[in-house]
Amino acid sequence: MLKDNIAVKVDHVSKYFKLPTESTNSLRTAMVNRFKGIKGYKKQHVLRDINFEVEKGDFFGIVGRNGSGKSTLLKIISQIYLPEQGSVTVDGKLVSFIELGVGFNPELTGRENVYMNGAMLGFTTEEVDAMYNDIVEFAELQDFMNQKLKNYSSGMQVRLAFSVAIKAQGDVLILDEVLAVGDEAFQRKCNDYFLERKQSGKTTILVTHDMGAVKKYCNKAVLIEDGLVKAIGEPFDVANQYSVDNTDQVAEDTEVKHEDDQIVVEDLKVRLLSKQQITPDEPIAFEISYNVLSDIETYVALSLTDIDRNIWIYNDNSLDHLTSGSGRKRVTYTCDLKNMNDIKLKLEVTIRDKQEQMLTFASATNTPIISINRNDIKGDDKSAMDSASGLIQRNGQWEFSS
């Protein structure tokens, strides 16, 4: 029995799949293996004792890396899968939108597909009648609803499928990685809808890799890692934990060859000295080291890039810090990014020669990431949560050592 304020209760849910380890067409071999205790499969545990509650009116985010168990959890909540242990209880009608266009028939018209999809979601013809105009208006397909779906463009099909899901009048809406559907204009329309839904008091569960969306829409979130709940609570804290978990402290180099096909610089390493999660008042510090194989002058060029907007926030590529000769070079760099908040920054480093030719660069996949968040904001001061924009004036300090 659910409490009055609980929309979804996930109660100590565990799930595993059986992966075959051998195949045989022989009944005799199968029976012999069975008597020997050889099962012919191994268990892959996808979820382990997942436990949380979604209150009515929550915009609840579920985040985690690929393979962490997020989509399996959604399918259990949607009653597509049954758990091996535990249970899921939902109060009210649940509308699940796990994959775009599932259940649509290209040989039927747009109108027929709306009614068929509505029936699959558990709505009566009368209930779909009441929702139909809202669905068509949101999809902006008024002139095409009597055409067969196979004659729709892919963008039109996406708009119709998404509109059926979000305009269906269910008590709980489940969405799996669908915030980037449609063209730019339709995405803006979806953004406005989600902001309205957040204020409406309707319950929504969202699975996404977009931490900006988690912070923007959600009031609660959970981080799933290796089938376990790693963090749950405030979306800012959960999103920042996810960002930190997906970074490595050391960035290895990617070599660049000169015209004579010789590698001049190798073994570039970038090591973050400060914490990955800091406040605007704390400095950012990192150590850069690399090995020069020729008697040339080199210097370090670096930038801090806003990951969500893909723009430079800070850079230092001055030729003032040239170093001469071969051998191991090591430098510590410290800078301040005051007034920044709610921002994830990617540190990008290249080594260049006196002619500004790039000799090597830190690989993007292992580049350190810094998350900056104020810790003095009161919960109702929404404007203070915004991140500052624009390029920060260079203020870094270089310290060289051998």
From TrEMBL:
<keyword id="KW-0067">ATP-binding</keyword>
<dbReference type="InterPro" id="IPR027417">
    <property type="entry name" value="P-loop_NTPase"/>
</dbReference>
<keyword id="KW-0547">Nucleotide-binding</keyword>
<dbReference type="InterPro" id="IPR003439">
    <property type="entry name" value="ABC_transporter-like_ATP-bd"/>
</dbReference>
<dbReference type="InterPro" id="IPR015860">
    <property type="entry name" value="ABC_transpr_TagH-like"/>
</dbReference>
<dbReference type="Pfam" id="PF00005">
    <property type="entry name" value="ABC_tran"/>
</dbReference>
<dbReference type="GO" id="GO:0005524">
    <property type="term" value="F:ATP binding"/>
</dbReference>
<dbReference type="GO" id="GO:0140359">
    <property type="term" value="F:ABC-type transporter activity"/>
</dbReference>
<comment type="similarity">
    <text>Belongs to the ABC transporter superfamily.</text>
</comment>
<dbReference type="InterPro" id="IPR003593">
    <property type="entry name" value="AAA+_ATPase"/>
</dbReference>
<dbReference type="GO" id="GO:0016887">
    <property type="term" value="F:ATP hydrolysis activity"/>
</dbReference>
<dbReference type="InterPro" id="IPR050683">
    <property type="entry name" value="Bact_Polysacc_Export_ATP-bd"/>
</dbReference>
<keyword id="KW-0813">Transport</keyword>
<feature type="domain" description="ABC transporter">
    <location>
        <begin position="27"/>
        <end position="251"/>
    </location>
</feature>
<dbReference type="InterPro" id="IPR017871">
    <property type="entry name" value="ABC_transporter-like_CS"/>
</dbReference>
<protein>
    <submittedName>
        <fullName>ABC transporter, ATP-binding protein</fullName>
    </submittedName>
</protein>
<dbReference type="GO" id="GO:0016020">
    <property type="term" value="C:membrane"/>
</dbReference>
